[in-house]
Amino acid sequence: MRYKNATAVFLIAVICTVAGMTAGLGAASAADMYRGHGIAMHGDLKYPADFKHFDYVNPNAPKGGEVKLSAIGGFDSFNSFIVKGRSGARQGLLYDTLMTSSADEPFSMYGLIAESVEMPTDRTSITFHLNPAARWHDGKPISVEDVIWTFETLVEKGRPFFRFYYGNIAKAEKVGPRSVKFSFKPDKVNRELPLIVGQLPVLPKHYWKDRDFTQTTLEPPLGSGAYRIKSFEVNRYVEFERVPDYWAATHPTRIGQYNFDTIRYDFYRDQTVALEAFKAGSYDFRSENSAKNWATAYDTPAVRDGLIAKKKFEHNRSTGMQGFVFNMRRDLFKDARVRRALNYAFDFEWSNRTLFYGQYARSDSYFENSELASNELPTGGELAVLEEYRDRLPAEVFTQTYANPKNDGSGNIRANLRIANKILREAGWRVDPKTRILTHEKTNKQMSFELLLVSPLFERIALPFKQNLKRLGIDMRVRTVDTAQYQSRVDNYDFDMVVTTWGQSDSPGNEQRSFWGSSAADRVGSRNLAGVKDPVVDDIIEKLIAAPDRESLVTYTRALDRVLLWQHLVVPHWHIPYDRLAFWDKFSRPSVTPRSGVQFMSWWIDSSKAATTQRRQADPAAK
Q1: Which of 76, 435, 448, 533 has the fewest CB atoms within 10 Å, counting from its CB?
Q2: Rounded distance, CA 569 to CA 489, Å?
Q3: CA-CA distance, 194 to 394, in Å (whole number)?
Q4: Closest Cα to residue 389, out of 492, 548, 537, 491?
Q5: 131-164 pLDDT, tens per residue?
Q6: Domain 321-575 belongs in CATH node 1.20.910.10
Q7: Phi, psi of 178 (to 5 degrees)
Q8: What is the DSSP letter of 368?
């Protein structure tokens, strides 16, 4: 699984000499060692050691110009590695990583700060050999000591995520002047762990020597990446400037990317304000997440006259799962029958027709839009995996193909509400014939809960759901709060129901522990929002992580998907197999879009287009 950053990071591939790669190998023989410029999760790397650039970039893209982007909320810190504060930093711009991934492979990592790697074929450790050219922005070389200090500091003082993500690493040690070895705990097989270590963002030990890493700070940090912070105003904007002597500027992983001289993020209160600012020309590029906005909000002269381009870009990545998430830590939602029943009150077809303009399809998988999604009934290897747990799984896992309730789009969902009422009666809930309130037969209390939102855009989706639940006698309160309060409540599981999205890569693995693992259920800030604590899920996740090849990875992922679906953890939402992008006509882009979708940092300012757009913005009558 890729470590999800706001901005992609990329690679450098350089072959190191045999002499340089033999430090710290221990007793492993040469025949048992892998040596190379990168690592593929399964199979071979796409790009050879002497590749010049990625296929989805323009190696001759011009540098220059300014791009303005948007962010929602505010910030009070540039330390994005701790729980405290709201960060205005962008890790992918400021810091390079040991290795970096390509956007046109399921999961492959190539050397960046580490010019080469070696590891035993059983993947019980990995040794990184650092590029002697790698430098911090102050000119000091990036050292092995920086790598080890970063790892130890993130695990000890960073977000709880890091302790979990790097939890299978036993130690990091210096094994040569520019070589660092990470040894892994022997109790569990984790084939992707070498790639996960490669995602480590390296921080400067000397910079943090006299600073408290556990505290927020508005001092622009020292980095090693393509950009550094130029200026900022708290809660208003952060401006990044491209580093003119960036150490990796001519390396294969950077060629054709990070082409803007300046990247500025302006912060807006919410998406409604941000959209209006975009149409007014206050920023340049927008990824549109609202179907209603996409269908209706861009009917402006700038779009009609071609000043704003509005385009769909197809992709082949997994769309993951978005939905109304039940917090099973609450007594109300411990019963799977209750969770299942509430799905019958969500009228997706009506929402899609009236609110989404028919743009979406309902999600029936946690790995939608990919070969990883379960479908039909389990057979072959997937059935063999599930058979081991047959007595601990719902019978439907083996006898039914999961499918969400369906309606005709008219808004009349009486048939589904009758089904929901029947399921709730089986779970001990009764509707009082006089008050029409749903109460439990043992407590006589009404079924009541709160849906916590962070964006008012979701209110138009939540309120019809609320009305349908009311017809069942259920009281669902909808509450929208600011980003800071929302994040705090979600991190501490102080909610009944929220909306969330679990993004999935083409190579799921270690992150599934954080999504669904028992050990993450009570850890502050984990992604296990539903509170899943299931030994079957834990076991399948470990087998998925240890999968020796692509075929077995797909098998275990489909089995996990099926088990999660039949636990009714969410009321599933929807997905689209393309990105909706709007941008002012000042950019050019590469001719190739990779399988994972648009890579905006490979675009560039087209000076001719930018001049024309600027002139027409100033004088709408100009052509």
Answers
A1: 435
A2: 19
A3: 36
A4: 537
A5: 999 999 999 999 999 999 999 999 999 998 898 8
A6: no
A7: -130, 30
A8: B
- pLDDT tens profile 341-396: 999 999 999 999 999 999 999 999 999 999 999 999 999 999 999 999 999 999 99
How many helices (H) and strands (E) the chain has is answered by 20, 26
Question: CA-CA distance, 86 to 71, in Å (whole number)?
Answer: 12
* Run of H or E residues at 182: strand 179-184
Going by DSSP bridges, is the β-strand pair 361-362/574-575 parallel, antiparallel, or unpaired?
Answer: antiparallel
* CB distance 524 to 164 below 8 Å: no
CA dist 113 and 32 (Å) reads 25
Does pTM surpass 0.85? no
CB 198 within 8 A of CB 114: yes
C-alpha to C-alpha distance for 124 and 113, rounded to whole angstroms: 21
Instruction: Give the pLDDT confidence of 469-504 residue by residue, as tens digits.
Output: 999 999 999 999 998 899 999 999 999 999 999 999
What are 324's strand-pairing partners? Answer: 499, 571
Contacts of 485 (CB under 8 A, 6+ apart): none
Q: Beta-carbon neighbour count of residue 596 at 10 Å?
A: 21
CA 327 to chain centroid, in Å, comes to 21
Q: In the chain, where are the structural domains located?
A: 1-281, 321-575
Q: How far apart are CA 254 and CA 64, in angstroms?
A: 15
- Please, what CATH class does the domain formed by 1-281 belong to? alpha beta
